[in-house]
Amino acid sequence: MTILISHSSALSYWRNLYHREKHDSLPCRLSSAPAQPPNITSFDWESMYGFTYPLHVSVSTKSTRRRSDFVHSHLIGYPLAKGSVYRVSDELLVSSPEFCFLQMAGELSLYRLIKLGYELCGTYSLRDTGTQDDFQATDDCTFGLNPLTDKQKLTAYLSNMPEATGQPKATSALRHITDGSASPMETLLTMLLTLPRKHGGYGFSLPELNAHIYPDRYSKEWSSQEYFKCDLF
Questions:
Q1: Residue 184 has pLDDT above 80, yes or no
Q2: What is the pLDDT of residues 65-119, one digit of tens each?
Q3: Distance of CA 221 to the CA centre of its chain
Q4: pTM for this one?
Q5: Which whole number is the average pLDDT over 40-63?
Q6: 29, 53, 94, 114 - which has most CB atoms within 10 Å?
Q7: Phi, psi angle pair for 102, to nearest 5°
Q8: β-strands 209-213, 141-142: how paired?
Q9: How do residues 187-229 score in pLDDT, each as one tens digit?
């Protein structure tokens, strides 16, 4: 029996630093969500993977949906594009960062979805479960990581999932996201400056985040640094 971890449970998986480091070794080709009802009793979810209940999974038929204190099934009736799923074990699959972003479009407001996009395309990770996003709690954040995805990959993936629930909303959120945020506060500052005025922002164009500024020959006489990093350029 195959189980596809999805939505907020998949987000928790990718926020786990161990699984994040293993990201490049897990691609799997799957054209549809599993048809079998999920049997969550076969795993020690909390000790093995750090999941909390209810566990969010995806299935392809209405008859296999389950909803209880332990499992919450989501119906995925559309075909899955390449890059939707990663394999954890013979029986366990997880939504890719790109698919997770698309799935969370149905769970989050546009504002929170944009913040999640910055995190997935950035170099930090919030160490929470599900959809908590207290951006002031920097003690629960890890910095200096490799990004899980980027705007180009998200754009290509969403274009290949036109039938998916939440695709228009995810595409709309992606217009306000850029790569390379290094912290939650950089994300908030960029959103404040660049979101349209109707969303509470100032409407500036998207900056390049953490751009490297290299000194010219004359400037190197005054500084020993190879380059300077600009938060918002």
A1: yes
A2: 888 888 899 999 999 999 999 988 888 899 999 999 999 999 999 999 999 999 9
A3: 43
A4: 0.90
A5: 80
A6: 94
A7: -65, -45
A8: unpaired
A9: 999 999 999 999 999 999 999 999 999 988 888 778 888 899 9
Question: How many Å apart are CA 7 and CA 1, to the nearest integer?
Answer: 20
Report the Cα 102 to chain-centroid distance in Å.
9
SS3 at position 58: strand
Which of 78, 77, 92, 65 shows the shortest CA–CA distance to 9?
Answer: 92
* Pairwise CA distance, residues 136 & 187, whole Å: 12
Contacts of 230 (CB under 8 A, 6+ apart): 208, 210, 211, 213
Q: Which amino acid is at 171?
A: T
* Other beta carbons less than 10 A from residue 10's beta carbon: 27
Bridge-based pairing of strands 85-87 and 71-75 is unpaired
Integer Cα distance of 231 and 233 in angstroms: 7
